[in-house]
Write the C-alpha coordinates for this entry.
Amino acid sequence: QVQLVESGGGLVQPGGSLRLSCAASRSIFSINVMGWYRQAPGKERELVADITSGGIPSYTDSVKGRFTISRDNAKNTVYLQMNSLKPEDTAVYYCNVRGTYYLTKVPSESWGQGTQVTVSS
Protein backbone atom coordinates (compact mmCIF):
# COMPACT_ATOMS: atom_id res chain seq x y z
CA GLN A 1 0.00 0.00 0.00
CA VAL A 2 0.97 3.62 -0.51
CA GLN A 3 0.65 6.20 2.22
CA LEU A 4 -0.21 9.72 1.09
CA VAL A 5 0.16 12.57 3.55
CA GLU A 6 -1.45 15.87 2.58
CA SER A 7 -0.90 19.28 4.11
CA GLY A 8 -1.40 22.96 3.38
CA GLY A 9 -5.14 23.43 3.49
CA GLY A 10 -6.86 26.08 5.51
CA LEU A 11 -8.91 29.25 5.50
CA VAL A 12 -7.94 32.11 3.23
CA GLN A 13 -9.58 35.31 2.00
CA PRO A 14 -10.50 35.78 -1.66
CA GLY A 15 -7.43 36.68 -3.65
CA GLY A 16 -5.14 34.87 -1.25
CA SER A 17 -2.84 31.93 -1.79
CA LEU A 18 -2.24 28.46 -0.42
CA ARG A 19 0.16 25.68 -1.29
CA LEU A 20 -0.86 22.07 -0.90
CA SER A 21 1.62 19.25 -0.67
CA CYS A 22 1.27 15.50 -0.83
CA ALA A 23 4.07 13.11 0.01
CA ALA A 24 3.96 9.44 -0.94
CA SER A 25 5.82 6.92 1.17
CA ARG A 26 6.32 3.18 1.20
CA SER A 27 5.19 2.88 -2.39
CA ILE A 28 4.69 -0.65 -3.65
CA PHE A 29 4.12 0.49 -7.19
CA SER A 30 5.88 2.77 -9.58
CA ILE A 31 4.21 6.18 -9.48
CA ASN A 32 3.59 7.67 -12.90
CA VAL A 33 0.97 10.39 -12.49
CA MET A 34 0.35 12.57 -9.45
CA GLY A 35 -2.54 14.95 -9.15
CA TRP A 36 -5.20 16.75 -7.20
CA TYR A 37 -8.95 16.32 -7.19
CA ARG A 38 -11.50 18.37 -5.29
CA GLN A 39 -15.06 17.97 -4.14
CA ALA A 40 -17.15 21.01 -3.30
CA PRO A 41 -20.44 20.91 -1.38
CA GLY A 42 -23.17 19.52 -3.60
CA LYS A 43 -20.75 18.78 -6.42
CA GLU A 44 -19.09 15.70 -7.83
CA ARG A 45 -15.39 15.13 -7.37
CA GLU A 46 -13.42 16.69 -10.20
CA LEU A 47 -9.86 16.61 -11.41
CA VAL A 48 -8.10 19.90 -10.69
CA ALA A 49 -4.64 19.18 -12.04
CA ASP A 50 -2.22 16.37 -12.60
CA ILE A 51 1.34 15.94 -13.74
CA THR A 52 3.19 13.08 -15.38
CA SER A 53 6.52 11.68 -14.29
CA GLY A 54 8.01 13.63 -17.18
CA GLY A 55 6.64 16.90 -15.83
CA ILE A 56 3.74 17.46 -18.23
CA PRO A 57 0.86 19.18 -16.40
CA SER A 58 -2.85 19.34 -17.11
CA TYR A 59 -5.41 21.68 -15.54
CA THR A 60 -9.12 22.05 -15.46
CA ASP A 61 -10.20 25.25 -17.20
CA SER A 62 -11.43 27.00 -14.07
CA VAL A 63 -7.97 27.06 -12.47
CA LYS A 64 -5.76 27.74 -15.47
CA GLY A 65 -3.54 30.73 -14.88
CA ARG A 66 -4.12 30.62 -11.13
CA PHE A 67 -2.92 27.19 -10.00
CA THR A 68 0.41 25.53 -10.65
CA ILE A 69 1.16 21.86 -10.11
CA SER A 70 4.69 20.59 -9.64
CA ARG A 71 6.45 17.52 -8.34
CA ASP A 72 9.71 16.41 -6.82
CA ASN A 73 10.33 12.89 -8.08
CA ALA A 74 13.19 12.27 -5.67
CA LYS A 75 10.83 12.91 -2.75
CA ASN A 76 7.71 11.45 -4.38
CA THR A 77 5.93 14.68 -3.53
CA VAL A 78 3.43 16.71 -5.52
CA TYR A 79 2.53 20.34 -4.86
CA LEU A 80 -0.35 22.56 -5.83
CA GLN A 81 0.30 26.29 -5.64
CA MET A 82 -3.04 28.08 -5.57
CA ASN A 83 -3.10 31.82 -6.21
CA SER A 84 -5.92 34.32 -6.66
CA LEU A 85 -8.26 32.04 -4.79
CA LYS A 86 -11.99 32.44 -5.22
CA PRO A 87 -14.89 31.34 -3.02
CA GLU A 88 -15.80 28.77 -5.65
CA ASP A 89 -12.46 27.06 -5.00
CA THR A 90 -13.77 26.02 -1.60
CA ALA A 91 -13.65 22.22 -1.46
CA VAL A 92 -11.96 19.22 0.02
CA TYR A 93 -8.83 18.58 -2.00
CA TYR A 94 -7.61 15.01 -2.48
CA CYS A 95 -4.20 13.88 -3.60
CA ASN A 96 -4.15 11.05 -6.11
CA VAL A 97 -1.28 8.97 -7.46
CA ARG A 98 -1.40 6.39 -10.23
CA GLY A 99 1.12 3.83 -11.32
CA THR A 100 1.83 0.15 -11.82
CA TYR A 101 2.93 -2.58 -9.44
CA TYR A 102 6.59 -3.41 -9.69
CA LEU A 103 6.13 -7.16 -10.04
CA THR A 104 2.96 -7.54 -12.06
CA LYS A 105 2.76 -4.18 -13.84
CA VAL A 106 -0.92 -4.07 -12.95
CA PRO A 107 -2.26 -0.50 -12.74
CA SER A 108 -3.07 0.86 -9.31
CA GLU A 109 -3.81 4.11 -7.53
CA SER A 110 -3.93 5.64 -4.07
CA TRP A 111 -5.82 8.54 -2.50
CA GLY A 112 -4.98 10.95 0.25
CA GLN A 113 -7.28 11.63 3.16
CA GLY A 114 -8.35 15.04 1.88
CA THR A 115 -7.57 18.53 3.10
CA GLN A 116 -10.10 21.33 3.46
CA VAL A 117 -9.62 24.57 1.54
CA THR A 118 -12.02 27.36 2.44
CA VAL A 119 -12.01 30.70 0.64
CA SER A 120 -14.14 33.23 2.45
CA SER A 121 -14.16 36.86 3.52
